[in-house]
Amino acid sequence: MQEIKKENEKKENEKRQKVCLINLGCKVNQYEIDGIIGTLQGEYDICTKLEKADIYIVNTCAVTQEAERKSRQFLAKILKQNSDAKIYVCGCASEHNGEQFLKVPQVQCVIGTFGKGNIKECFSKSGKQTQEFSNEYEDNLLATNVRTRGYVKIQDGCNNFCSYCIIPYLRGRSRSRAIESIVKEANILAKDCKEIVITGINISDYKIDGKLALIKVLLALKNLPARVRLGSLEMNVITKDFLQKASEIKNFCPQFHLSLQSGSDKVLKEMNRHYTTREFFEKVELIRQFFPLASITTDVIVGYPTETEDDFKRTLLFVRKVSFSSVHFFVYSSREGTHASTLLQLNGTIQKKREDKLKIVVQDCKKRYLLKCLNKTFEVLVEQKSGEYFEGFSREYVRCFLTSKKDITGTLVKAKAIKIFKDGIFVQEIV
Fold it and tell me: Which of 42, 85, 87, 108 is deepest in the core (most CB within 10 A)?
């Protein structure tokens, strides 16, 4: 009887199709691909690295022209694995222009940023499936593909309409997830992972009954048996009350990613960013009052169309003044459909020279921050071993390297920072 059962199981597995899920882009996309996996588990064999499969799902990105181009190019990589593959495309690039993917014969169906939780239904459909933007949060995904760090999406869409950004047109207006749903998912994830990252398109705009309420999410998760980290923030959410309450939450990670984009007030205004560098710096100082060793990270766009040499110099000076622990900087890329795309674009050579200058300043800022970390004690979430070193991140999101005679992967380790090492710090475990 047992042999018959095993034979039936073997036949069932042979029939089951293999689905390869490819994610391109931001942490929100990562959360959504994890959620799609949850809808397919049990019926299909799943893989998340490019390999031969029967079905491919590609979650695309369109934040820049380069990201959209990579999304298209990935289809060619898939066809090298299986020329007869059935491909299903979703995400921002397909919302922006679905026809570009339908030109590939193996692409069966294209959806946009909505309906990812129902993508299994598309296996029996063809062409581009359009769906109207909703004013309600689409709450039909549950991220089950958990690693050491898990993601919980609390919000979608954006109302900011920065002059360079196409995302509000592809994701729709801001809408928030019910806090009960957030807590339920976070508790499920916390059973298997040591850290939860709160993510969304603009989590600073998370609201309950029309009022900003991001701090209520943190307070609702304060008893989780996992660390809680916030994704990218806008400056408006940083208040004394917010920081006071956050400082009293034991599982809160003091990393603040505040989007800057430019150190020139003139350029900020032209970008439709609603703050000045003075206001931004005041928020940074306020953070450091409550979290002296907080990691303050940011984004900077280099070579915006109206950015003059003087504007760029102001950005360099401001980045030094704030002394960010890390800066994600990139050359401006025109996106059709945005206001900035109608402006006279800067020469690419000028943009590249400015990028190189900013890189030097950023490296210096990072080194200064890491020096502040030396001789301090950190809680390190160990995520992997590479060669002789274990690697992980502190609550401040400082990359930490350490050695151990036992396998400490997936554990929280108390350690002291000894020296700057590679792109982070070498720490010694405190036993």
Answer: 87
- In tens, the pLDDT along 121-170 reads 888 877 777 666 667 788 877 776 667 889 999 999 999 999 999 999 99
**Encoded tokens for 174:** 């801001």
The greatest distance separating any two alpha carbons of the chain, rounded to the nearest whole angstrom, comes to 81
Residue 191 CB coordination number (10 Å): 10
Q: What is the pLDDT of residues 175-201, one digit of tens each?
A: 999 999 999 999 999 998 999 999 999
CA angle 190, 193, 197 (to 5 degrees): 80
pTM for the model stands at 0.90
Taking only the tens place, the pLDDT of each residue in 197-252 is: 999 999 999 999 999 999 999 999 999 999 999 999 999 999 999 999 999 999 99
- 16, 40 Cβ separation under 8 angstroms: no
Which two three-digit tokens encode residue 355? 């990028």
Residues listed for the chain: 431
How far apart, in whole angstroms, are the C-alpha atoms of residue 87 and residue 120?
A: 12
d(CA 36, CA 198): 18
- Residue 96: CA count within 13 A, CB half-sphere: 24
Show the domains of the chain with their CATH numbers: 13-128 (3.40.50.12160), 149-372 (3.80.30.20), 377-429 (2.40.50)
| Cα distances (angstroms) measured from residue 128 to each of 29, 75, 131, 259 | 20, 16, 10, 34
Report which listed range, 72-76, 109-113, 132-136, 268-272, is most confident: 268-272
CA angle 367, 372, 373 (to 5 degrees): 95
Q: Token pair of 32, please? A: 């959504």
